[in-house]
C-alpha cells in the first residue's frame, strides 16, 4: 500500500497557535511528513506567514497585513489569543520558516494567499526564497488564485504546484491538466473514488484539506488520496 502523506495544516494548529514557529516545531515532533503554511506580503515587500489577510483573529494587531511594514508586524503578539502560555510569539517570515525546515526531512506546502489581495510579485519573492534554501524538490506551491499558479509555473516548472478549490469542479483532473499543475488540492468533501482514479490516471496527486475528524481521515485513507492536510498530525499518524 502506498504511503499517504501526513501534512500539518498551519503546523500543529490543533494544539498550538497556527502558523507560528512552535506549531511548526511541534508538527515535526508529532511525526508529520510535511507542513502546510500560508504566505502574504508586508507593506515593504517581505513574505510573512499568516492565514488571514487581516491580523485581528490570530494576533494583537488590527487591519490588513499589507498596510504594515515587517518591523511593525513583529511588534504584534501571535500567540496570546490562542492561550496565555503562548504569549510573546511573533508572526514568522517565510525566510525564518524555510531556514528552519531546510535541514529537516519534510515536505513544505506553501499556500499563496492572493485570491483576495493579489500581491504584486509575490510568486517571485516566494520562489527566490525556495531556491535560496534549495528546497525546490521538497516544495509544493498552491493557491486558490489559478492565474497565480500559472505565473508560478512560468517562474520554475521544477517546483510542484497545486490548484486549491472548495467546490464541485467538473472533471477537476482535466482542468488541472489545462492549468498545468502537478496536483489538485480539493476540500475533502469534494473528492470521490472516480475523481481520485482519474487524477492518478492523469499523473496528478490528490492532496485533500482540512481533515480533522477520525472517521473522515479513515475515509480519505480508504479512498487512496496522496496527502491529508490536518490540524491533528498526531491523530492521523496513529491511524496510518
UniProtKB/TrEMBL annotation:
In terms of Pfam families, this protein maps to: GDPD
The entry lists its GO molecular-function terms as:
phosphoric diester hydrolase activity
Q: Tell me, which GO biological process terms does this entry list?
A: lipid metabolic process
Concerning SUPFAM superfamilies, the annotation shows: PLC-like phosphodiesterases
Which InterPro entries does the record match to this protein? GP_PDE_dom (IPR030395), PLC-like_Pdiesterase_TIM-brl (IPR017946)
- PROSITE patterns, A to Z: GP_PDE
Domain GP-PDE stretches: 4-240
Superkingdom of origin organism: Bacteria
Q: Please give the name of this protein.
A: Glycerophosphodiester phosphodiesterase
Q: Which organism is it from?
A: Clostridium taeniosporum
Amino acid at each position: 500500500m502506498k504511503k499517504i502523506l501526513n501534512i500539518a495544516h498551519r503546523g500543529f494548529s490543533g494544539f498550538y497557535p497556527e502558523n507560528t514557529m512552535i506549531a511548526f516545531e511541534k508538527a515535526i515532533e508529532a511525526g508529520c511528513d510535511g507542513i502546510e503554511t500560508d504566505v502574504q506580503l508586508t507593506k515593504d515587500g517581505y513574505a510573512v506567514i499568516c492565514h488571514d489577510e487581516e491580523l485581528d483573529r490570530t494576533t494583537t494587531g488590527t487591519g490588513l497585513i499589507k498596510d504594515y511594514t515587517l518591523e511593525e508586524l513583529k511588534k504584534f503578539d501571535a500567540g496570546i489569543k490562542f492561550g496565555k502560555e503562548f504569549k510573546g510569539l511573533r508572526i514568522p517570515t517565510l525566510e525564518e520558516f524555510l531556514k528552519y525546515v531546510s535541514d529537516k526531512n519534510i515536505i513544505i506546502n506553501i499556500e499563496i494567499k492572493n485570491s483576495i489581495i493579489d500581491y504584486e510579485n509575490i510568486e517571485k519573492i516566494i520562489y527566490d526564497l525556495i531556491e535560496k534554501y534549495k528546497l525546490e524538490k521538497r516544495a509544493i506551491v498552491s493557491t486558490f488564485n489559478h492565474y497565480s499558479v500559472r505565473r508560478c509555473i512560468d517562474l520554475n516548472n521544477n517546483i510542484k504546484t497545486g490548484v486549491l478549490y472548495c467546490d464541485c469542479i467538473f472533471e477537476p483532473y482535466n482542468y488541472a491538466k489545462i492549468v498545468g499543475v502537478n496536483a489538485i488540492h480539493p476540500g475533502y468533501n469534494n473528492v470521490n473514488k472516480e475523481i481520485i482514479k482519474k487524477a492518478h490516471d492523469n499523473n496528478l496527486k490528490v492532496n485533500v484539506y482540512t481533515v480533522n475528524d477520525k472517521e473522515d481521515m479513515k475515509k480519505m485513507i480508504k479512498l487512496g488520496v496522496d496527502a491529508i492536510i490536518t490540524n491533528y498530525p498526531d491523530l492521523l499518524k496513529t491511524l496510518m
